[in-house]
């Protein structure tokens, strides 16, 4: 079973600064990786799939990269509305395993 | 506009079963699948399983395999998730999400969630 590990657990960033979130898979998932944003009390929202393809309507300040076992989500210029928990999810092996999440706080 | 609307909150006793519905609109139901994801209070996301809207093929997470059944009704574009032998560990918000038709992939969009509380 693949284990997805996200770091850091919490990230505090000033508005306008860059936020870098990491996701590591215990074995290769190729580029079969998605990122989601979940705001308090809401359902998650798809941000990125295929490791780097932005979903419809997602602002360009969100970008994803990586392949194999190491992945990164970058929020290039953090806005106040980006305060949320971010989850990665692999879909390489007929399953949908999530990472534990990174909470992004606005300084 | 794609929408998934789920049934309302449920309170169940340990050992009981629950069936959550997810009504889809705004797309051709048979061209996509549905995944179910749950989130225990204050915890992260846990994928439970997937069903194809085309041929009802299913994949279930090992953790719930044997206690879960996912079905669809193509006449009403509705997916169902039934979980039985409930324990307090099954207390969670249950989400459905549109997925790909051939296998679990990425989930977009999500339903609003259904809170299932298991308590004696």
Tell me what you see in this structure.
The complex is a heterodimer of chains A (107) and B (120). With 107 residues, chain A is mostly beta strands. In chain A, 0% of the residues lie in helices and 49% in strands. Chain A has no helices and 10 strands. Chain A has strands at 4-7, 10-13, 19-25, 33-38, 45-49, 53-54, 62-67, 70-75, 84-90, 102-106. In chain A, β7 (62-67) and β8 form a beta hairpin. The radius of gyration of chain A is 13 Å and the shape is globular. In chain A, 38% of the residues are buried. The model of chain A has no long low-confidence stretch (mean pLDDT 97). Chain B has 120 residues and is an all-beta fold. Chain B has strands spanning 3-6, 10-12, 18-25, 33-39, 46-52, 58-60, 68-73, 78-83, 92-99, 114-118. In chain B, the strands form 2 sheets. In chain B, strands 2-10-9-4-5-6 form a 6-stranded mixed β-sheet, with no helix packed on it. Chain B has a 4-stranded antiparallel β-sheet with strand order 1-3-8-7, with no helix packed on it. Chain B starts with a strand and ends with a strand. Chains A and B meet through β4 and β5 of A and β5 of B.
Give the strand line-up of the largest sheet of chain B. 2-10-9-4-5-6
The main pleated sheet of chain B reads as: 6 strands, mixed
Any low-confidence stretches of chain B, pLDDT <50, length ≥5? none
How far apart, in Å, are the first and last alpha carbons of chain B? 40 Å
Percent strand of chain B equals: over 45%
Topology of chain B as a string of helices (H) and strands (E): EEEEEEEEEE
Write down the Rg of chain B: 13 Å
Strand runs of chain B, count: 10
Helix/strand-derived category of chain B reads mainly beta
Shape of chain B: globular
The pLDDT mean of chain A sits at 97
Shape of chain A: globular
Most extensive interface between two protein chains, with residue counts: A-B, 23 and 22 residues
Mean pLDDT of chain B: 97
Query: Whole-number radius of gyration of chain A?
Result: 13 Å
How far apart the termini of chain A lie comes to: 37 Å
> What structural class results from the helix and strand content of chain A?
mainly beta
């Amino acid at each position: 079973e693949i284990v997805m590990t996200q770091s850091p657990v919490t990230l505090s960033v000033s508005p306008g600064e860059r936020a870098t979130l990491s996701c590591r898979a215990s074995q290769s998932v190729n580029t079969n990786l998605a990122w989601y944003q979940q705001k308090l009390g809401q359902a998650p929202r798809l941000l990125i799939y295929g490791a780097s393809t932005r979903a419809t309507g997602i602002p360009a300040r969100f970008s994803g990269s990586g392949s194999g076992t190491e992945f990164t989500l970058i929020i290039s210029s953090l806005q106040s509305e980006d305060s949320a928990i971010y989850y990665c999810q692999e879909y390489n092996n007929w399953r949908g395993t999530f990472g534990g999440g990174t909470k992004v706080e606005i300084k | 506009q794609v929408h998934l609307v789920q049934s309302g909150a449920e309170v169940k006793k340990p050992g009981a079963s629950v069936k959550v519905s997810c009504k889809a609109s705004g797309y051709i139901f048979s061209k996509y699948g549905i995944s179910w994801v749950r989130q225990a209070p204050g915890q992260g996301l846990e994928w439970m399983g997937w069903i194809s809207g085309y041929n009802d093929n299913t994949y279930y997470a090992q953790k719930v395999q044997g206690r879960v059944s996912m079905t669809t009704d193509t006449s009403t574009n509705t997916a169902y998730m039934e979980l039985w032998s409930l324990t307090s560990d099954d207390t969670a918000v249950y989400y459905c999400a549109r997925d790909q038709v051939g296998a679990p992939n990425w989930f977009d969009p999500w339903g609003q969630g259904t809170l299932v509380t298991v308590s004696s």
